[in-house]
Design a protein that fits this description.
Length: 282
């Protein structure tokens, strides 16, 4: 082994959450959550629908107020930030969503360029309105995600997997230190899901990005993450490296204990189907 883990340990945590509780009226979405994420870690959040994954991700970028507790990201206490300082923090964090959130009528290149709007302090209309250096950077990111040849096509003419790759290129325009992804492959078929997740992992490793990503697919999480954090009813019930972690142990996050391989497979299929239904509904 190299000295890499030692180097990581010496740096400050990128994300430090302590005693975080978030209530929506009577619903306790997160309860006393603690989480530390070190630079360059790739963490997957797993848990049933409603377990608090999206709420936790949203808290990391101050999209919702906290009820109590502390959320420190890149050394900043998120709840104490407002206006310009919150925007500055968010500009260092890329966010990828389940539904891609592209502007369908714009070209792929323009969609990627919108990732630089924070730097430009305002909206731009048309490609000509962006500086050449940003256009070159956007084309470079499109090349990285394998879509350079689609740069001048409308975004809505691409497949789901391609659109998510555009969304990743858009996030890269921010030169982020952290990438948050909220079920980035929930709308994709298994092959595209594998491609998108592999791409995120490769890019994260190249750029030393820290990644926190919610997923519904246990197999994908086990093959893709460094570490899995399991949430149940808003509480962290598992937080461990994937090394040596079995699928049966992960299933306990879902309150399911499998006593045989066939039972494990049946539970996996059931969870995948229930996640799929949630996706169709949402
Ligand atoms: N804006 C809101 N107003 C009221 N309740 C909310 C709000 N956002 C989330 N909740 C509730 O908080 C709980 C956690 O929701 P959250 O979306 O974080 O779960 P999740 O694990 O991301 O679910 P999914 O996998 O379906 O996306 C749920 O009970 C949900 O109904």
């Amino acid at each position: 082994m190299s000295t890499e883990p030692e180097k990581v340990m010496n740096k400050a945590s990128v994300i430090e959450v302590a005693g975080l509780t978030k209530e929506f009226g009577r619903t306790v979405a997160l309860h006393d959550v603690a989480l530390r994420v070190e630079p360059g870690e790739i963490v997957v959040l797993l848990g049933l629908s409603g377990s608090g994954k999206s709420t936790l991700l949203r808290q990391l970028v101050g999209l919702e107020t906290t009820t109590s507790g502390s959320v420190r990201v890149l050394g900043e206490e998120v709840s104490s930030l407002g206006g310009r300082r919150l925007r500055a923090l968010r500009s260092r964090i890329g966010f990828v969503f389940q539904q891609f959130e592209l502007v369908p009528s714009l070209t792929v290149l323009e969609n990627v360029l919108t990732g630089a709007l924070a730097e430009l302090h305002g909206p731009r209309l048309g490609l000509w309105a962006y500086p050449k250096r940003l256009k070159l950077a956007a084309l470079g990111h499109l090349d990285r995600v394998g879509l350079l040849d689609r740069a001048y096509q409308r975004a809505d003419t691409l497949s789901g997997g391609q659109q998510q790759r555009v969304a990743i290129a858009r996030a890269l325009m921010q030169n982020p230190q952290i990438l948050l992804a909220d079920e980035p492959v929930a709308s994709l078929d298994p092959e595209s899901s594998d491609q998108v997740m592999s791409l995120i992992r490769e890019i994260a490793m190249e750029a030393g990005l820290t990644v926190v990503c919610s997923l519904h697919q246990v197999d994908l999480a086990l093959s893709w993450a460094d570490r899995i954090v399991g949430l149940r009813h808003g509480e962290v019930v598992l937080d461990t490296s994937v090394e040596g972690l079995s699928k049966a142990q992960v299933m306990e996050v879902y309150g399911r204990v499998a006593t045989s391989t066939s039972e494990l497979e049946a539970i996996t299929v059931e969870l995948a189907e229930s996640a799929q239904q949630q996706t169709v509904v949402s």
